[in-house]
Design brief:
The protein has helices at residues 9-15, 18-24; strands at 44-48, 54-57, 61-62, 70-71, 79-84, 91-96, 102-107, 117-120, 125-129. With 130 residues, it is mainly β.
């Protein structure tokens, strides 16, 4: 069976919405406060919108005041990180460890117990409600 996460750009374009493709595959970002999950309060698991990998439990979501859904901890090792030096600054990019999709960025200004803020794009996520 072929690995469903190893797709061509054309395959990703066919499977994702234009906004999802721009964010997940081209490392874009969405406008703050104008995205699907910033104010979401439902319980469930946030999955990667590209491959379905479980990324964050809703119990780790918090209101960071930034305008993007924020979490203090991912589920296991599902989120990979790498240095991002775009836009004249150095940040830590968060990626789906399974398909490599761009999720957002990680900052060290989150709440206890981790002190981290995984600032995610809603278009990168798909909430499976409990």
């Amino acid at each position: 069976m072929a690995d469903s996460t190893k797709k061509t750009d054309e395959q990703w374009k066919q499977e994702l919405s234009p906004e999802q493709y721009r964010i997940l595959r081209e490392k874009g970002t969405e406008r703050p406060f104008a995205n699907k999950y910033n104010d979401e309060k439902a319980e469930g698991v946030y999955q990667c919108a590209a491959c379905g990998e479980p990324l964050f439990d809703s119990s780790t979501k918090f209101d960071s005041g930034t305008g993007w859904p924020s979490f203090f901890q991912p589920i296991g090792d599902c989120v990979a990180t790498e240095s991002d030096t775009a836009h004249g600054m150095t940040r830590t990019e968060a990626l789906c460890a399974k398909c490599g999709g761009h999720l957002g960025h990680v900052f060290n200004d989150g709440p206890a117990p981790t002190g981290q803020r995984y600032c995610m794009n809603s278009a990168s996520l798909d909430l499976k409600k409990r």
